[in-house]
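To illustrate the input format used throughout this study, we show a single complete record. The first block contains the structure-token representation of the backbone; no residue identities are included at this stage. The design step must infer an amino acid for every position from geometry alone.
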């Protein structure tokens, strides 16, 4: 078009462009973006959170992180978390609505039924907004796990490819949750659902192992003074197992049958052993000479098989002081994953049945968390529902001494947050039936809003006080030290967090901090009309080290990025 802009094109030229675009082949996911009320209202009011102090679960003897329950629409809670937890989440697990048409998915306060011609577009619009916000929360090594079934599985795969990148897909796992199959299916009895796994960055992500099954553990029948073990061949098998594939791994090993000693040099009484394939071709060892020399005295055995000497490695059931784990597979089959197991666990915890439809079993979530995060990881579930993820985190910490933290986000539709999620976590912490409690600290927050004003400065003045709880969440600081109208100080294990809403009294407030009997660092949040965070007026002779930033500018910057796009692609 001779570099014309669209505004400069004639009607005929514009029509020609449209016809040309229609002829182009497309590959990928295309849907009609449907407006959503919860996103649109953020153009007029900004989400914040406020603590419900009556729901604090406190254990003074617990030194681990404080867990969070946030009640509200997850679009709003994810927006808040984009300020408090950008790049800090290790594992996200979600069990979103499957869009079956059976009153499991609402859009703009109405159920989306099977006959809705835009049911897939509504679901994709809904998920796109939330997954885009979730992506920025993941740490560099972060991983997201998403449960889904066939109603939207194909669409979700393409959506995740678009948001996270196809190269960051780690697995599509079949979870057998009903081995008998659903009896009401017409053609095939569905026995599984899908778990999709994506990394923030496949180059940084790491999938950890699962505990060995009882049958696998029984394979370690032999034992020596170090531990139990099973034998695996030192000779490489399968791919790249020939000498020409790995020539440096082809060398003779010498073995003394009487002394059971190994060597790289031929001596009296030793036999020479080469790696040889079954077909007679030259093979290769799994170990190079350096590894062989390091481990030859404790980790190798040799014996004759059909007249041929073979060397075996002792694969131990204990590695670096911990039980050996197994690599997760793409099909999970175990009764602990059954749909019914989730309902039984919830009933056991709260003493009632029918409180929540098809909750996930805690053991299922434990395995997801085991393979996705270290024992000090931060785990987020923004479709928290009945709170299974929270229970799984608490129980895992109790089992292995970990310090994992959970963040549960759920709305209060039909009272789910207040009647199920919170009571369940409270029961796990305090104990239920014959099950002892697992001491932990939990804080409960609700989303709230600050109405936008006609001027930015007025908005800054209204928003700053409403940011207090967001700052506490961001810093993980909940132990109150100073509580004045325009000056707050909180303590965590790393230091102090101070929030100042009146910079004119800054010197007096700093003096109060300096009087505290501590020399820990201070994270200082001070009200400002600008993005200027330095505090040049501070004295150089201060006992504490201060790191300062303005409020509410940090929140406004993030919300500008999120809401100015209106949730659009």
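Output of the design step:
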């Amino acid at each position: 078009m001779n570099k014309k802009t669209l505004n400069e094109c004639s009607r005929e030229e514009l029509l020609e462009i449209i016809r040309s675009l229609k002829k182009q082949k497309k590959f990928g996911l295309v849907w009609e973006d449907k407006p959503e009320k919860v996103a649109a209202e953020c153009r007029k009011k900004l989400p914040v959170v406020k603590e419900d102090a009556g729901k604090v679960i406190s254990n003074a003897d617990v030194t681990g992180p404080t867990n969070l329950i946030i009640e509200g629409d997850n679009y709003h809670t994810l927006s808040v978390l984009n300020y408090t937890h950008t790049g800090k989440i290790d594992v996200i697990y979600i069990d979103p609505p499957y869009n079956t048409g059976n009153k499991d998915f609402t859009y703009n306060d109405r159920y989306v039924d099977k006959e809705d011609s835009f049911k897939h577009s509504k679901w994709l619009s809904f998920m796109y907004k939330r997954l885009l916000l979730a992506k920025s929360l993941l740490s560099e090594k972060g991983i997201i796990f998403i449960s889904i079934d066939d109603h939207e599985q194909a669409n979700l795969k393409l959506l995740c490819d678009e948001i996270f990148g196809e190269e960051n897909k780690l697995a599509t796992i079949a979870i057998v949750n009903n081995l008998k199959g659903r009896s009401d299916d017409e053609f095939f009895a569905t026995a599984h659902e899908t778990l999709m796994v994506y990394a923030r960055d496949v180059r940084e992500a790491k999938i950890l192992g699962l505990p060995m099954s009882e049958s696998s553990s029984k394979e370690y029948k032999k034992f020596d003074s170090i531990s139990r073990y099973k034998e695996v061949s030192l000779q490489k098998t399968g791919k790249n197992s020939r000498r020409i594939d790995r020539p440096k791994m082809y060398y003779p090993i010498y073995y003394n049958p009487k002394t059971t000693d190994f060597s790289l040099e031929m001596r009296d009484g030793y036999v020479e052993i080469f790696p040889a394939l079954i077909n007679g071709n030259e093979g290769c060892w799994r170990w190079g000479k350096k590894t062989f020399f390091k481990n030859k005295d404790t980790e190798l055995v040799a014996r004759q098989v059909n007249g041929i000497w073979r060397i075996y490695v002792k694969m131990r059931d204990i590695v670096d002081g911990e039980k050996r784990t197994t690599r997760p597979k793409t099909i999970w089959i175990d009764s602990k994953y059954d749909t019914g197991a989730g309902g039984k666990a919830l009933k056991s915890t709260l003493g009632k049945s029918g409180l929540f439809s098809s909750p996930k079993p805690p053991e299922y979530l434990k395995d997801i968390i085991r393979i996705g995060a270290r024992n000090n990881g931060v785990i987020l579930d923004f479709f928290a529902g009945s709170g299974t993820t929270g229970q799984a985190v608490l129980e895992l910490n109790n089992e292995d001494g970990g310090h994992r933290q959970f963040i549960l986000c759920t709305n209060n539709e039909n009272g789910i947050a207040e009647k199920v999620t919170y009571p369940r976590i409270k029961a796990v912490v305090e104990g239920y039936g014959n099950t002892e409690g697992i001491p932990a600290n939990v804080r409960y927050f609700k989303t709230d809003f600050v109405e936008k004003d006609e001027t930015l400065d007025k908005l800054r003045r209204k928003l700053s006080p409403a940011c207090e709880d967001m700052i506490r969440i961001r810093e993980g600081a909940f132990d109150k030290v100073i509580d004045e109208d325009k000056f707050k100080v909180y303590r965590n294990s790393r230091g102090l967090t101070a929030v100042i809403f009146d910079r004119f009294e800054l010197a007096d407030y700093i003096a109060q901090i300096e009087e505290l009997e501590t020399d820990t660092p201070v994270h200082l949040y001070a009200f400002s009309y600008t993005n200027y965070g330095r505090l040049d007026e501070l004295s150089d002779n201060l006992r504490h080290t201060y790191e300062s930033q303005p409020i509410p500018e940090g929140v406004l910057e993030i919300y500008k990025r999120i809401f100015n796009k209106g949730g659009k692609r």
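Structural context for interpreting the output: The two ends are 26 Å apart (CA to CA). DSSP finds 15 helices and 30 strands in the chain.
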